[in-house]
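ok so I'm stuck.
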Amino acid sequence: MRESQTRRPHPAPRSETADQLLAAAAALMTERNTIDVPVADVAARAGLNAALVNYYFRTKTGLHIALVRRDAEVAVAEMNRLLATGLPPAEKMRRHLTGIIRTFQRCPYLYRLMRALLRDADSKAAREIVEFFSKPVIETQKAILQEGIASGAFRPVDPMMFHLCAIGACDQLFAEQSTLRWSFGVAAIDDDLARSYGEFVVDLLMKGFLARA
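replied:
not stuck anymore, here's the structure
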């Protein structure tokens, strides 16, 4: 895939105050395991006046979009670097899927926040998120799948079906914390559990599209 197809323009730099508010929102969503965090609590965690949330982001939705954008910048940069490597397609896909799981581990609120913002498919928020996050992920997956199919390493796979399965599976561990706690006695998701889950999911997904010998 050509560079112009994968790279996105860099957003305008945020102020230090805006970054403090975003960090506070991310910390509270992670600690409380919910995206429903009051703006006043975000400001209090950051040690700032609640009016600054409206000043920098206008609305609570604006804060949420900015948080998704902040986290997406890191993930998209990683995908661009991966596509630029000369690795075989199977290794690229393994690293891509592992990277998605690592992103959801680092930002366990991210997928729930995106789903909430994407609920109204015709909204401005939904269009923005699709443009700066969903599209780069899908384009990365399509590029790796096409390369693998062309080389004979992968069997033909519908990119849309693959994307839906991959994203859902990669987030499942972090979306089901209540089930983990009350059904399996897992009080918290530590690095070992996240790594084991990542290895299991990547192995399971790749067995679905690797070409049979």
